[in-house]
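Question: I have long wanted to understand how a fold can be written as tokens. Here is the record:
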Amino acid sequence: MQPFATKLWNRNFNLLIIGQIISLFGNMIISFALPLYIFSISDSPALFGLVMGLPYISLLLLSPIGGIIADRLRKQRIMFWLDASTTALILLYMVVSGLTAYIVPIVIVKLLALNAIQGMYIPTVQASVPLLVPGEKLTSGNAIVGVVNSLSGMVGMAVAGFVFGRFGLTPILIIGAICFAITAIMDLLIRMPYKKRDSSGGVLKIVKEDLTQSVRYATKEKPILAKVVIIVFFMVLMLASVIMVGQPVLVYQYLDMGMEHVGISQSLMMIGAVIGGIIAGTMGEKLTIKKSFIVIAIGSIFILLKGIIFLVGTPYFTAYIVVTATCAIVLMTVQIFNVAAITFVQKNTPSEIVGKVLSIIMVLPFLAQAIGQVLYGALFEGFYSMPWIVIIATAVMVAAIAIFSQFINWKSGNETADISTQQTSSMQA
């Protein structure tokens, strides 16, 4: 199915982007504030990592289902119902949390539900981009989505850290509910091409056939896609986890600063991701999956610098500034790589099955986030007096993966051709 847009910035893509800004902002302030709330009352990095990592189970399980739904139903309607459901869940959480003293289980359940919805929402958005922008602008479209994600995350973390530190959790929940309600209304205004597919045979049969088709395509017909996701798995396992778990722990516990400083640090870090998205969009078709690993290697150098800062005993405020800056640079490199990887998958997958394939491919990175955040929470608690050991070891392993990736034959995937209209044997089966 061909995109029906002739230019990048068009009405429907604009609505998608504006909705993403509002929705992701609401999601970020809640997802960031709830684990911080648990960390502030427990002072346990291990529990903090557990609360961050465990909810990924639902995202992991629902992502493939989200891909199937995205390829079979109208995507704008899917996004509407997911945003509306999130609004209702936030309001329900506010009621339930006020009636029980068992805070940790309630927070985990809330995050499980939120991630379950995100597991269906993310592949729907990613599958929508090829339909809303011209094929030659696909890299730029993905880069814009990445920049929007980063900007929303940056502002969301800053607002969450400040509001939580000053006023507590309730205002954050109210803001989040309003954001999702507004986005749900905007979803109804988006128009995109839709081709109804055969849905006979029952739900279980459809799910089985679609999952089988997606796995076969990514492993048999285009095995290069499986190689991409394996490398992404290890990148997320280490880079994302050492930053998203390590930075709040190091700032709040090791540098003995308040939650406001945690929010500011996390927000400033996201500037790097914004810059990375801008760079990726500027490079356009020049950005390839093979070249993107160079920036990951650069990122490992700055993770190493972060470890050295804690090894040599730098003054606290200086350490705060330097580690925030290094993490920003690392997130910049990660964003560039993410845009290259997503574009690579989209260009090597027919649009009729891109939602399913993307959701299957995202399962391993989601699993990596779940494992990594629990693991790094335990590591930072175990090496409380020597956090540099964890950070430097991570830098070395990431550098090794970046070097190893250069031995892969990336030419087996076509990075320049737009195959959105191709018919694959798996689709004919």
Notes: The chain has a mean pLDDT of 77. The radius of gyration is 21 Å. The CA atoms of residues 27 and 320 lie 26 Å apart.
